[in-house]
Amino acid sequence: MLHPKSKYRVFSILFLVSGFAGIIYESVWTQYIKLLAGHAAFAQSFILVIFLGGLAAGASLAAKFSIKLKNLFLFYALIEIAIGLLAMLFHPVFIGVEGLLSGYIYGYFPLFWSDLMKWGFALLITIPQTMLLGATFPLITGALTRQEVEKDGNIVAQFYSVNSLGAAAGILVSGFFLIEKFGLPGTMLIAGGVNILIGVVVLVFLKLRIYGVNKKNIVHGRDARPCVSTVQHIPTVVPKTQKKGFIIYIFIAAFFTGTASFIYEIGWIRMLSMVMGSSVHAFELMLSAFILGIGIGSYWIKYRIDSMKRPLIFLVRVQIVMGILAIGSLVAYSFSFNMMSWLLQNIERDGHGYFIYMVVGYGVAMLVMLPATICAGMTLPLMIKILNRGAYDERNTGRVYALNTLGGIAGVLVSVHIIMPLLGLKNMMVTAGILDMAVGIGMLTFNRRADKIKPVWYMILLCIIISITSFVFLRLDPIKMASGVYRYGDIVTTNEMLFHEDGKTSTISVYQTPNGNIVLCTNGKPDASINIYRQVSGDEATQVLLSALPLSLNPNIRNAAIIGLGSGKTAHVTLMNYNLQELHVVEIEPAVVEASCFFNDYNFNILNDERYALHMGDARTFFQSGAGTYDLIISEPSNPWISGIASLYSAEFYKMISGKLTDDGMFVQWMHIYEMDMPLLASVIKAFSPSFNDYVIYFLDDGDIAIIGKKEGRIPGPGNAVFLNPEMKVELSKLGLENMDDINLRYLGNKNMLDGFFFSYASPVNSDYFPVLEYQAGKIRFLQERASGLLGMLEYPAPILRSLQQIPPIEIDNLGSNYTFNIAQDFRDALEIYHTFHADSTSLGRQGKLRYHLFIARKIAGMMTLSDSITPDQHWLRDLDTFAGMVIPYLQQDQLIDIWDIITTSNGFRYLPTEIKGRIDLYRAVSACDYERIIRLTGDLNNMDEIETESYDGYRLIVTIWANLMLYHPDNALTLSLKFEQDTEMPVILRLLINQVNSAGVMDKR
Hints:
Blueprint: H1 4-37, H2 41-65, H3 72-105, H4 111-147, H5 152-208, H6 243-276, H7 280-302, H8 311-344, H9 351-387, H10 395-444, H11 453-473, H12 478-481, H13 485-488, E1 496-502, E2 507-512, E3 517-522, E4 525-531, H14 540-553, E5 559-563, H15 569-574, E6 582-587, H16 590-595, H17 605-608, E7 612-616, H18 619-625, E8 630-635, H19 651-658, E9 661-672, H20 678-688, E10 694-699, E11 704-710, H21 721-724, H22 726-734, H23 740-744, E12 747-750, H24 751-759, H25 772-783, H26 789-795, H27 800-805, H28 822-836, H29 841-847, H30 852-861, H31 874-887, H32 893-904, H33 914-927, H34 931-937, H35 952-966, H36 970-977, H37 988-999
Helix pairs in contact: 1-2, 1-3, 1-4, 1-5, 2-4, 2-10, 3-4, 3-5, 4-5, 4-10, 5-7, 5-9, 6-7, 6-8, 6-9, 6-10, 7-9, 8-9, 8-10, 9-10, 10-11, 19-20, 20-25, 24-37, 30-31, 32-33, 33-34, 34-35, 35-36, 35-37, 36-37
């Protein structure tokens, strides 16, 4: 037989690993069920209720039947195996349920019955596993306590601790590694395998009979045999007439302390999301810190619990101190903003910096949570120990655990749906702290010693003073909370707060900046803005063009829907379409609707237009349950690095939403290129493309794009209808858009041009079950990456995109101000350079402005007056390349040829070295789209083995590949592409060219 200490360690390790797997289930199940239920507040709380309810039911059943079981080890092993097997079956079962709902329920039954069946299936596929998980703790502690009943408190605390510590580690490993690497299905398989392995190990131990069962210690309720202990137990001082009442109160205390703890958890996570961000990784750090505190508390108490003479008094102190510390966490929270601000101002935005950011964020979460959660970790073992004083009853473990978990259900429901919306975060936390203190004070009433009456009143007075002080004087600064410190590393104190409300799903703020921007924020992240001084805010172009662009492509849209209300500007502009008959807007957070009132002066259409209908709820649920179809759907959610948002960018969502379009219908997806890199953007396009016959991409401003997909047929070119609409023309004029050239300026390409390019990236498709975007976007945001390659294709010093797509040139004289799109200014600057080259040298000097582009132009134009041999240095060559990049992407072909002719016919040109003349000659050939001359000028490339990507030779190679492609020589183009350095990142424009070659029927031989 195994030595007791060794046996204790073995099962501690097994239960630690069981906790590791158990929290993975909670995390992954939550994501699965949200795909059915959505992300609305009711759905989120219902998911938690399912999980906690299953745990409570399993613990309760274990408490009821365990005393009838001879060998708890055997049943524990079988349950672990059953959990693992169910985990392995979960994904296919879920897919079947989802197919059943979408194929036979949604759209065929009224909304109420559809929702009812949806919730019913969600319950059926999760409750068996959660019940089994809930049974593991009472069974394993009961099995071991039968061996050494005198250590019942130590065993309960030990296994509560190791299970919590395993869970704290599991949430980090799954979130930072497993889900990213293996997706949701793979992570479930791994966790299931872990549980099966645990069960098999226990069965092997059972088979080898390396432990025994002390049958004398199996007890049955009140008739239980008194425990045999080497420690002198002093029974709790409870009058016999009140014993039943005392037991009931402990059960009640277990319930309410569970309620308070879950209120803390929800409150802390909401608060810290404004310090650390709302990314899935930030959420996992917060949850891990919460569970870690419980594990530490129960681990600390295990060494003391069996030797305590008066555990009830100690529990009273723990409850009161826990309430005080929870309220005190609000003070630590206020300082956490300053800590995060200092951190982000002093670390590099690189991979090493991100690791530091995560570690410090974990530390911030622990600073706020650990003091109170350590106390929370002590309460359950203490309550079980108190109930077992004098006579051990193994059923108490399951009962207390079940009631504590049921209290958690109450905490979830009242915090999300009642306390937080009504009282706000601060008052919710104070209320929960008072609840814990009240539970502690209530326990003192069961101590009959007279000399304890006076301290009771002292305790009550202290708690009252702390409560009143907290309600009156403690304050959470809404300016800090809306500052987005986790993004900018700064706390702006000059903004005027107009609105701040802790909604059911997020905290919504509206503030006004000194320059007149009214900004709507979600958990500190700006989501919409309008300027009251008729200037252009940072979000205004996005809000207007998301509606104007699709209406320019199809002015006959009859019915439309928008995902996300925001300020209401997009809906306001959409309603300007006179042909529109109805517009449905879906918003998940009620507080956003209240906040949108601050934009009413600028969005009056949504107040007065009978075609407008607002629906509160989750977008996926709304469209899945609805039977109608739409000519236009606009998706304008928040950034996908925010936890839960990425499901609106998944392949499964796009497939579903395509089914909600009419045959001629269009879907518009907002996407940002700031805080984004090319592979991650490609994962979204790869999810988007298969569900639409065609798509086009337009720039909304320098940092945002619109991906417009059409269900059937091709997307036509934009029409002039938006400029013929008086209301819409006014809105566009505010942005500096005056005619169709301002629209065409923003065009990047269509599916035929871009699909192969995006699919060439190795990044996986963003999927509900492989949530690449959600798990990588948070890091990309921190690194401040930018998918600048898209703009780079428009700005490349060769008209590659225009020639491949046969895009007409932009009439620069027609361009409006285009306030939020700097490429328009580049066009105007290029035109100014063109006019400059037609002035004499004297006027050129007088006209010179303190702008970089004219400074370079003067240096290049200076060669026209030279009359002696020139030996240009590297700076001059660099300026020549810069000059080419300033004019070739923007001017029309005849203007470019004119400039190069002026240079090549000048007096100074003939004195240039042959190498420089050849470079200028190539730029002229590129500008003229003289493909044969380009190939002749770069013929020496065939003799080179490998060419550096960023060099001038790299440019020569790219334009030569382009020329071969335009002359229908794809084999030559592909052969040339192999000459690039293989160990460097492929230039974006080269990737585009190679995929155009492949689409012409040539296989990529890389």
